[in-house]
Amino acid sequence: MNISRYRDLTILDNDSCKLVIACDSSGAIGPxxxxxxxxxxxxxxxxxxxxxxMELLSVGATPLTIIDTLAIEMDPTGxxxxxxxxxxxxxxxxxxxxxxxxxxxxxxxxxxxxxxITAIGQVDHFFAESLEGDYVVVVGIPKVGDEVSxxxxxICNLPSIREIRKMSGVQEIVPVxxxxxxxxxxxxxxxxxxxxxxxxxxIDLHKSAGPTTCVVLTxxxxxxxxxxxxxTQPLTILGQLKKVEKI
Length: 247
Known about the structure:
Elements: E1 2-6, E2 9-13, E3 18-27, E4 29-30, E5 37-38, H1 41-58, E6 62-70, H2 74-90, E7 100-103, E8 114-123, E9 135-140, H3 158-166, E10 170-176, H4 180-192, E11 194-197, E12 214-219, H5 223-230, E13 235-243
Parallel strand pairs: 4-5, 6-7
Antiparallel strand pairs: 1-2, 2-3, 3-8, 6-8, 9-12, 9-13, 10-12, 11-13
Helix pairs in contact: 1-2, 1-3
């Protein structure tokens, strides 16, 4: 079996299939006494799950299972988080009771929320390359902390990413997190040995996108209008990919 990395994903390839593993964590965000950002456990579970499932969907993987590692008690906070995990997972067809496993902290009283999550998916065709001439766009808006809410139509969600991933001509989809759009864009350019021509934008490239409130994607020109018609989030065109000019 071959084990490799692509961005934040671990890929297990045994020739017959590829398994893709994504993980995320969150601390001091929740309903507990010492939490810095006060929010209910259900919302924590929704966004925690959204991050890892968006990572899987972005490369074309079908989610198979989720494991939660909750450094909180089961009742009541842990159960609230689990309810959020289940509702978010249902958006991609994970509804069987067996899809979810995990653990909670039952030995020590906890005064601050700490949660982790891992998702595993399977993929046949792995989308991991951008091409010269592709347009680079941002879908969504970077938001973090108190700016983030579940029903915000400006931030990315699973249905939007799933629809975009189905489109022919869409290449890479890169979820943006705490390092911001600029970091993910730089990494994309380095991976593909390309540069971005006609770069201009008013969007904040350095701001954290929190729980993946936006994505950077590359696509052919004919996809731009199709994407706009499929999403509710803002679409910002950053520029077009070009080869590095040799001196």
